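batch job 7 of whatever, protein = Transposase
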Amino acid sequence: MKRLFHKGLQATKELFAVVCPLVAWLWDVAEILRNQEQWKADIVQNHFEATLERMRTAAKQADTGRPALVHFLKVTQSYAPHLFFCYQIADLPKTNNDLEQAFGKVRASERRATGRRGAIPGLVVRGPVRLTTTLAARLHLFSDEELIPDDLTRWRQLRCEVSSRQEIRRKQSRFHKDPHAYLVALEQRLSKMSLRF
């Protein structure tokens, strides 16, 4: 067994030479985001961006491992602006795993309350409202006064978005119940619209 292990290490020695520096970069980024020193968000962001800048320089100079660095930098650019909220807001989950667990708890409580095993239509349609409400209610018991919306324009806009999603869901349901009748009614509406023009 020892001989096979040694043989495997020898065969992949060149690959390790490429992978080791890349792994070191990832550990550097992970260490910054772990924030053991409890720095404020702007300091963490500055360290993070400085490390990414060093990675960009290394990617330009590297012969091997460049595609991996370029890919990491490209993906990181898309989610980097949202990484630092957890250092600004107390008790905000730091990772997708923490967020997924929070969402999972909401789904589990919805399933228990409704008895459904699959996706709950109400959670799909009213997700932004129900999810936020459920998560916030776990942290704080709101009074009547706190539930009054501060920004009526934003509140109306959110209600409009939820209503439009509900209407889309209703149309999907009608289509699934009787596709032929739904398409006939749609064709009739379209023909009436074309007659107007």
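notes: The chain has three domains: 2-88, 93-144, 149-197.
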